[in-house]
Amino acid sequence: MALQIGSKNARDNFAELLGRVGFGREEIVIERSGKPMAVLIPMDVYEQLVAEREARFSILDRIQAKQPSLPAEQVEADVEAVIRQVRINRAARGG
Fold first, then answer.
1. What is the tens place of the pLDDT at every residue in 76-89?
2. What does each C-alpha distance from 34 to 7, 8, 60, 85, 88 come to in angstroms?
3. What is the domain range of residue 28?
4. pLDDT at position 10 over 90
5. CB of 40 within 8 A of CB of 21?
């Protein structure tokens, strides 16, 4: 469970928080007025997240490259049609 801390407290104790994240491997959520605004995470966790995101986008790029080029309007119309159909099917099941 990540430590949650207010932004003023985070600012006043930034060096300590960096140590807790960097050496203690803690994750810290920084809040403003009780609303989560940012997260301090260890660098290796960040690098792993970036690598996973890049891998996922690489897969999407390969899929897109194999697809025919369609105008954006056609893609939007197709997506809207599928969403409508899903909603109709869900309503028919009583959900």
1. 899 999 999 999 99
2. 9, 12, 36, 40, 39
3. 3-41
4. yes
5. yes
The pLDDT of residue 66 is above 90? no
pLDDT at 65: 82
Q: Where are the beta strands (DSSP E) in 1-95?
A: 3-6, 28-32, 35-40
Are residues 54 and 37 part of one domain?
Answer: no
* CATH code of the domain containing 24: 3.40.1620
pLDDT of residue 31: 98
**What does DSSP say about strands 3-6 and 35-40: parallel, antiparallel, or unpaired?**
unpaired
Assess whether 36 and 49 both reside in one domain: no
Residues 49 and 87 in one domain: yes
Closest CA to 8 of 23, 30, 27: 30
